């Protein structure tokens, strides 16, 4: 064994190291003055050497007072010698790189730039000094040092978690399984898991419950909790650990304690340990901002041995903190767990369906549920009373979301309301990327599910800017994408909060962004058409919920641009909902659109005529006599503005003819129909879909006057042409097939009529749905034929199937659906298909 180092020898070594370190620090400062900026490789040295000087000074004091044992002097002496070696190497490098006073400016600059090539060598020395700084700090004693502090060897594990167990915690079993899976790593690797998700989703509560379960499973494991919401809170947490674990005295500075926890856990702690780094939400705080010891929080998180759990709202940050482990995304609380949470906090006295209703209103967000329960208990109200208030208005909802309360497991500095919790994330997004904030504003005015990318992007949007913005929103869990990443969804409560933030920025902001959403949707919603293609149905189905949300809003200001965008969207949506069987609603929209355009654009504007034409068509479709007068006026205007042979003029002529038939003016009706067909063939072509529709309308009216033979000849020709152009399952073709079958009935060709009706019904069920009015009519007519042919049981079976399907269908509440379903129930006579417009695809 080596001889013990004498006190005199240790003091001498300490003095030599101090002098050398002071010299090097000064030379680095001089070097800096030469090139106006310290090279990056030297910046860490400027932090470490002063810490070494301070530690060595205290060791010298302890030695002079005889407070160090022989073993301690030996250990400290070895570290000081190693520090001297490293510092001499630095001094030598600086000597080679530091310009002389006689050097020219060019030579001084060249020498300074040469220093950049030594970064790797300097970094290696700096890393060694950093480790020696920790070792010196671990052997120091308190300034008043009566008793030396020894590096602790705990007799029992530490439990430094600032919260007791949450007795209301429920479920989340799958999350605990994922955490356990993340902790399975190869020998020598550190176990890490990062919980990420929307603020208030329960990340900290899950981490807290996991701590208690870990303690139960392994009583030898030390468990620590660190708050990383701010640099100051992180530093305070580390300092508290250092004090409680005996690394520093209570009156030591935070800079000392924060520096000691990492090396102690990595090298000196005996037994297993786990640390929760909670609220690591800001990348700048974790990786860039520095504590008083000159280090960032990331540099002070132990990365050897032990187990780490991070909680963060940022998915991207979660990945960086816990890689190579994938972030564990925390979903909304499930129905069963949500009911159990309400019961634990509120009691068992409420029906399950009422608690589920509350869950759905609060988007299954745990913090919102806890907040609502707190509100109810303090205000002494029950769930129905809470829901009544919550649904009263957006302002009332926001006030309730902003209600402050004390939540279990949240620090005193944390916001204690849903609104304030999200506001922290929102402010961070706005500071980081204004485009992302703008996207959140826009999203808040659509339905919260299935928001397509096409209505979020403008024509001049840069692709990468858009992707960056949506990534940030997804990163904070405000917005999530589907698997294709072309449709997004958010939480309705997030939308309410976003609109609230918009109002706080100015009284006109909400209206301005709502108008932006309206314009985007009106631009993307397919225009009204009589011959939709396949993508029309899919696009309209996706966009309709968002259109309904915007059209339901009462724009109190009646600026022209707002109203004209509404008129455009009313036209487009009105045509689609008519296709899907909501006839009355579609007609109302056409009327409103016509009124708006007539007010702002005038009666003769082409856009006004489009709305007017749709309204006249819808009236004639429903057999309303009022269609005749505006029909004549529309025909007059279109002939004057568009010309007598324009497709819209020919279409108007056919619609007017249909309206005349509804008022029993058959002679005039057939005359107009023949004129429309003649113009269509001459100017649009015999195979044009509008021409074919005019022929269908003519044949339908001919059947009304029992001219079945001529009608059948027209149908035969139109049937074959449409079948070849549109296919046998196209809804527009199915109109012809239905009418042709009805015409054959009039001619007595029942077997062929049954065959066509069977195909037509099967196709309509597939394309339109069993509860669509057109499907119901086809079912009635086929059943009527079964009755005629004596197949009563088959007819009854068909009718019962349709009735059951309609009662469970999506359209069961629509007026039009109920009206046509009554026809089947009453077994009325077949309906003339000639009175129906072209069907939707």
Strand-helix topology:
Elements: H1 7-35, H2 40-64, H3 70-97, H4 105-114, H5 119-138, E1 159-160, H6 173-182, E2 191-196, H7 203-217, E3 222-227, H8 231-244, H9 254-268, E4 273-278, H10 283-287, E5 307-312, H11 315-322, E6 328-329, H12 335-346, H13 352-361, H14 366-379, H15 383-390, H16 394-401, H17 418-432, H18 434-443, E7 451-452, H19 463-475, E8 479-481, E9 487-490, H20 492-505, H21 509-524, H22 534-551, H23 560-579, H24 583-601, H25 606-621, H26 628-641, H27 647-662, H28 666-683, H29 689-704, H30 708-726, H31 731-746, H32 750-767, H33 773-788, H34 792-807, H35 815-826
Parallel strand pairs: 1-3, 2-5, 2-6, 3-4, 4-5
Antiparallel strand pairs: 7-9, 8-9
Helix pairs in contact: 1-2, 1-3, 2-3, 2-5, 3-5, 5-9, 8-9, 12-13, 12-14, 17-18, 17-20, 18-19, 21-22, 21-23, 22-23, 23-24, 24-25, 25-26, 25-27, 26-27, 27-28, 27-29, 28-29, 29-30, 30-31, 31-32, 32-33, 33-34, 33-35
Task: Offer a few descriptive terms.
841 residues, mainly alpha, Rossmann fold, six-stranded parallel sheet, three-stranded antiparallel sheet, 35 helices, 9 strands, 4% strand, disordered C terminus
Task: Explain what the structure shows.
- This protein is mainly alpha-helical.
- Among the domains are: 7-138; 159-329, P-loop containing nucleotide triphosphate hydrolases (Rossmann fold), CATH 3.40.50.300; 335-401; 702-841, Serine Threonine Protein Phosphatase 5, Tetratricopeptide repeat, CATH 1.25.40.
- The chain has a 6-stranded parallel sheet, sandwiched between helices.
- The radius of gyration is 39 Å and the shape is elongated.
- The N and C termini lie far apart (95 Å).
